[in-house]
Amino acid sequence: MVADFLQQILEAHELWLAGSPGGKRAMLSDRNLAGLDLQGANLQSADLGGVDLSNSNLRGANLSQCRLTGATMAGTNLENASLFRADLSDCDLRGACLRGANLDEVDIWRANFQGCIIGADILHGLLGCEEP
Predict the structure, then answer these.
(1) How far apart, in whole angstroms, are the C-alpha atoms of residue 17 and residue 120?
(2) pLDDT of residue 93 exceeding 90
(3) Average model confidence (pLDDT) for the chain?
(4) Which of these, 27, 49, 112, 118, could form a disulfide with 98 (CB 3.0-4.6 Å)?
């Protein structure tokens, strides 16, 4: 369940992405959003730096081009989420589920992936490994 204040922010963000009047980019940096159900949310290009999203459900969410610098996402479900070109530097992803997530061109400088659930193909792409 998404809190009313967050629902309003998400709706204004959708308008901003569409270039419609009344739109405003989602600026959620340093907020505590731990444990929320944001499945399928469109947060493309949102500012989520330092946000606490630990143990949240972001399955299928669009986090493309988001600033997630220093975010806490430990135990978060990011299955099938798009993190294309997201900034995950200094992000805590311990124990997060990244099965099927799009991690193309992400910045992972000093990100903590300890214990996360991730497919070998995604991990190879993330690290720039060549297929054997």
Answers:
(1) 33
(2) yes
(3) 94
(4) 118
Q: Which of 39, 35, 36, 43 is nearest to 14 (CA)?
A: 43
The owner of tokens 């944001």 is 38
pLDDT, mean of residues 107-124: 91
Compute φ and ψ for 96, nearest 5 degrees: -75, 150
- Which tokens in the block code for residue 41? 């949310």
Instruction: Find how far residue 78's CA is from the centre of its chain.
Output: 7
Q: Report how far Cα 81 is from the mean position of its chain's Cα atoms.
A: 7
Alpha carbons 72 and 48: distance in angstroms, whole number:
10
Which class is domain 27-125?
mainly beta
CA separation, residue 19 to residues 15, 32, 42, 115 (Å): 6, 28, 15, 39
Structure tokens at 60: 């299928």
CB of 99 closer than 8 Å to CB of 123: no
Rounded Cα–Cα distance for residues 109 and 87 (Å): 9
Both tokens of 87, joined, read 């900034």
